[in-house]
Specification:
The protein is mostly helical. The protein has a domain of 77 residues: Arc Repressor Mutant, subunit A, CATH 1.10.10. It is built from 5 helices and 3 strands. It has a 3-stranded antiparallel beta sheet. Strand 2 and strand 3 form a beta hairpin. Helix 1 packs antiparallel against helix 4. The longest helix has 38 residues. The protein is rod-shaped.
């Protein structure tokens, strides 16, 4: 389970590392769209654009299905859940580290103040 979670997390971050794919995710947040409409907005040849869609599908952020002769794409927000969980975990870890650093700095300040008063 952990291995598949981490593999999918790698796919998600790979997907998010590209500006075109982030823009597609943003566009699809407004609702489904055809691949040709999405590609047109990015001034990109359809074969090149389809590669971006495949990356998004592999990371399970986007799904596509054929509707007649048109391939429609839709956002699958659940695909971002793993990344969201990872970020939340990392934020908690860094907050704990910063809290310990704050405590250390405060203790050092008190120690210096005490040492200064003794002199």
């Amino acid at each position: 389970m952990l291995v598949s979670y981490m593999a999918n997390l790698d796919h998600v971050f790979h997907s998010l590392s590209n500006a075109t794919r982030r823009a597609v995710i943003k566009q699809l947040a407004s609702g489904p769209a055809s691949i040709s409409d999405l590609a047109q907005r990015h001034h990109m040849a359809l074969p090149s654009f389809i590669k971006h869609i495949r990356v998004l599908e592999e990371s399970e952020i986007v799904t596509s299905h054929k509707k007649g002769r048109v391939r429609m794409c839709a956002l699958r927000p659940r695909g971002l859940t793993g990344a969201q969980g990872w970020f939340e975990q990392e934020c908690r870890r860094w907050e704990a580290r910063l809290d310990r650093l704050d405590g250390f700095i405060e203790a050092q300040a008190v120690k210096e103040k005490t040492n200064g008063e003794k002199r």
